[in-house]
Structures are given as C-alpha cells and as structure tokens.
Amino acid sequence: MIELYRDPVYDGATDPRVVIDADGLWWMFYTQRRASLEDSGPGVSWIHGSRIGVATSADGVEWTYDGTLEPAASGLVLESGPPPAEVDRTHWAPEVVWDGARWRMYLTEIDGIPDRWPGFVREIVEYVSDDLRHWSRRGALALSSDRVIDAAVARTPDGLWRLWYKDEAADSVTMVASSADLGEWSLDGVAVGGRPHEGPTVFELGGFWWMIVDEWRGMGVYRSDDGIGWVRQGGEDAVILADLPGGGHGNHGAHVRDGDELWFYFFGTAHDAPVHAATGEQRRAAVYRLGLDVDAGNLVVEDWKPGR
C-alpha cells in the first residue's frame, strides 16, 4: 500500500479528514502528532500538544503541506510553516463539513499537554469558515460528558443533522446528538455500543448508511437504513483494514466523495520509519487511502493504484 502523505514537521499525520472545495481543491485536515520529538515529555505527552495540520492537493493523491491552524483572537487561522515550539493546548481529530452555506469544523480540544490518558477534560468545539483558512470559534458543545472526542457530522434522511462522537466516560462507545439547525443539539444516547472504539465516520453509499469506527485492531463497520439504527457488518470480531501491507492496521479515518467515487482516508504505521530511541515505539504515521463500494449489501474495500 502506497503512503500518500507524511507530515513534514513531526512525521505524525493522524486522524485525516479530507474535503473538496468549490474550485476542486482537495484539503486535508489532520492531527499533527509530535511523533518525531525525542524529548516530548513523559508518557503520552507526544500524542498531546498537537496542532491541526493542513495539506492541499489538486487530485487527492499528491499533497503539499500548507501549515497549521493556529489560535487567533477570533478562533483559528491557517499559518504557513511549523507550529510554535511551545504550545499550551491540544487539538485532535477535526471533522469538517459543508452545511450548504459555509464550512463547519468540530474539533476536539484539551487544555494543556496531558502525560496520561485519564482525568483530563476533553471537549468538542464548533468553528465556522467561508474559506477553510480562517475559522471563527462558536464554542464547546454541551454533550453527554466532559470526556468527549472524535466528532462525525452528517444530515440523515429524516432531515436532522446528527453528531456522533466517542464518550470516554461511557466506556468509550459512540454516542449521538441531533439538531434541526446545527444550533441546538438534543442528546439521543448510545448510537453504537459494544467493545470500546473511537473515530466514527458516517456516510451514505449504495442505498445504505454506513459508520466506520476505529477499534485499534482494524475498523468496525455498521450499516443502517436511516442513519439512526445500526447493525454491525459481520460478527463482533469482524473488521476491515486489519492487516496492512508493511505491517500494522488501519486507524481513525474519514470518507470523501469525489463524483461517483467514495474514498476512505486513514492513518497507519509509516513505512521504514525509525522507532523512538527512548521507548522503542513505532510512533510515526502516514496517511493512506482506499476506495469503498457496496457489494451484496456489504461495505467492501477496493484496492487503489496510482492513476486510478
């Protein structure tokens, strides 16, 4: 499998979300993990302290790094080059959607740079933009707890917008909220339970609605007729992208529609990357993509080759 993109600053491009603007330019927003830092701090500090990296492409294959979304008085602004060496916030997992009039981003934000997983407030914060470069902050959403991450947003057939997200305070399952206007949200409970997971993405394809989640061993797939009730594809242990060429498995990704094609961008272990000298961890990550299609009522992954 071919690496499409490596972050040139920290070599830790994760959680990619790709959109295509009205001019046909492809934009990738991703978590810029500080994977290459040898002195990032104790524990999981290197996974925190991240900015949102931005890359653009004419075709969705060849990508150019454009910089990071940096805090500004009004919200966030795309600044070229690397982020500041010293940061005091963590930004994760951008979800970017077009609402029919403007762009909206639902971003996971954490104060500080935690060195361990539990005990730190995580919020999903909404931003709006007209150009994908300047983002005005609307504020944090009132959801099911203060340990929420990884938003996915789509408008379902009943006309309501829905926001799916991971709630770490609810055994790390996918919760859902609904809204008629993207202003007021109603909490609708658990969308997908079962084993812990994260990083949902939701889309329509082949007459069904689909949700893909990251189970840290491959991706779980769920199908729905209406975007509300979900049934797992295969048994409890069935996953896709569980064994990638070169090692590892697929992690936290999202879809983008280009005409009749639907692509799934995700991250995995970077090929031929050095391990972290102090810990021996393979921290570095690359972005990949594969096509998605529906065959006999099942979501299937199609191979991809350059030129296709």
From TrEMBL:
Gene3D superfamilies: Glycosyl hydrolase domain, family 43
InterPro entries: Glyco_hydro_beta-prop_sf
Organism: Microbacterium phyllosphaerae
Protein name: Glycosyl hydrolase
